Amino acid sequence: MENIQVAVRIRPDPEPSIWAIHDQHIFLNNQMRKPPNGQGRTTFAFDHCFSQDSKNTDIYSKEVKSLVLGSTNGINGTIFLYGQTGSGKTYTMLGKENDEGVLLQSFKDLFAKIEADLNKTYVLRCSYFEIYNEQIFDLLKPSSKLQETLQVNEDQKKEFFSERTHRIISIIHQ
Ligand SMILES: Nc1ncnc2c1ncn2[C@@H]1O[C@H](COP(=O)(O)OP(=O)(O)OP(=O)(O)O)[C@@H](O)[C@H]1O
Ligand SMILES: [Mg+2]
Known about the structure:
Layout: E1 7-9, E2 19-22, E3 25-28, E4 42-45, E5 48-50, H1 56-70, H2 89-94, E6 95-96, E7 99-100, H3 102-116, E8 122-126, E9 129-132, E10 135-138, E11 152-154, E12 160-162, E13 167-171
Parallel strand pairs: 1-5
Antiparallel strand pairs: 2-3, 3-4, 6-7, 8-13, 9-10, 11-12
Helix pairs in contact: 1-3
The structure holds adenosine-5'-triphosphate (ATP) and magnesium ion.
């Protein structure tokens, strides 16, 4: 597996979509955006393409699960959602009833794995930030303090850190 995987997901839209997905390719159907010679369609290839019909469980099982479980074996991983406003980042993260977001599915799998492993002690540290207009918000703060922005500092090793709320959850098996 490549170190970096890039996937695209199309949000359901009541309007006919200008995008079409076939196999792992996404096509731009809009005539105005055809290549100058008018031949063929503009095509972009990704590691995975998820159509309007995809569910958050599809995204989780193909893109997220292996990274999440890999972390319990000491492998660092990042899942980065990128897209214009309204494109479905929050929906993919949090989901809704009957379409659970990848965040909740991650926690369920992590806790199931931890509980099944009687030979190790795990400590999970969990922070939850929003970066918006170059300001950082700590989403684990009580709702009355959610508007407070976080100060970002640089330590002696030139690493950035920020004071934050975090919960430490530990499960210790005797
Ligand atoms: N796959 C999907 N299935 C059903 N509804 C979706 C899907 N993706 C997005 N939506 C709906 O589209 C709307 C916009 O999505 P969402 O809030 O997730 O966008 P966003 O990328 O987080 O935008 P912003 O950058 O403004 O936070 C929401 O009402 C959401 O419920
Ligand atoms: Mg959002």
